[in-house]
Amino acid sequence: MHDTSALVLRRHVILAVDHDDVRTFAGDLARRGFTVTVTPSAEALMRAVADGSPDAVLLASGSTSGLPAAEAVRRLRDLSGVPCVVIAPPSEGIEERIDALEAGADEVLHVGIPPIEAVARIRAVLRRVGPPAGALAPWRLVRAGRRLLPPVGDEVRLTGAEFEFLALLAAAEGAPVDRETLSIEVFRRPWRTEDRAVDSLVRRLRRKLPLDAINSIRNVGYALAVPVEFTEARV
User: pTM for the full model?
Assistant: First the structure.
């Protein structure tokens, strides 16, 4: 039997936590722009899915008492068609992985997979299934005239620095961009600890945009919390 406790990731992805390796995996994801929230059990996971509209669910199967991953996936499928990725420990055999896939999991990842590959695979699942019902429509960042066009409402005019900053974040597709990169690309100078130019730029942008449009990632930099599509063409 396997335990299936859970975490919820920004883009509201739910990730099960059952041992230190998976907690480390969750930390790696958080450092790459996902916000992680813990739920204590499979039952709590199901309630979280029922109460919200997550983009995907990640279930981690462990070696303590509780539901096997495949059974948790079946229960999830009875509740929702939300994309599901299973995190499998090294001790788990091919039979368990096949059971999870046949139960309705969209992907199986192994504990210890490089974080950059894990994030790429999760994003690939999200691309395959498309956005969930009610997902945010993307903003459009237009180089001609340095404009940001919201799904609804008036366009936002940007300064050159504001435009370049948002273009960098848009290219990262929700992953954080560090202050060093932002300082070099936007202000053409290396970043120093006492340098507040990037932070000041973010404060100005937050006065023009919804307050939660740009996430601060502690000890890293910034990431977009809303989808933004970039175009060179005039719109």
Answer: 0.53
Class of CATH domain 139-231: mainly alpha
DSSP state of 112: T
| pLDDT, tens digit (0-9, with 9 covering 90-100), for 99-158 | 989 989 999 988 888 878 888 888 788 777 655 444 456 888 999 889 999 887 788 999
Whether the CB-CB separation of 42 and 73 falls below 8 Å is answered with no
| Lateral strand order in the sheet of 36-39 | 36-39, 6-9, 13-15, 56-60, 84-88, 107-110
Residues of the chain within CATH 1.10.10.10 domain(s) are: 139-231
Q: Give the bridge partners for 110, in sequence order.
A: 88
In this structure, is the dihedral angle defined by the CA atoms of residues 156, 159, 165 and 168, taken in order, positive or negative? positive
Q: Distance between CA 65 and CA 188 in Å, rounded?
A: 55
Neighbouring C-alpha atoms within 13 Å toward the C-beta of 212: 3
Determine if residue 231 is left, alpha or beta; phi over 0 gives left, psi from -120 to 50 gives alpha, anything else beta.
Answer: beta
Torsion of the alpha carbons at 77, 174, 37 and 136, rounded to the nearest 10: -60
Region 6-129: CATH code: 3.40.50.2300
CA distance readout (Å), 153 to 4, 9, 148? 43, 29, 11
What DSSP line would sit under 55-85, residue for residue?
A: SEEEEE--SSSS--HHHHHHHHHHH----EE
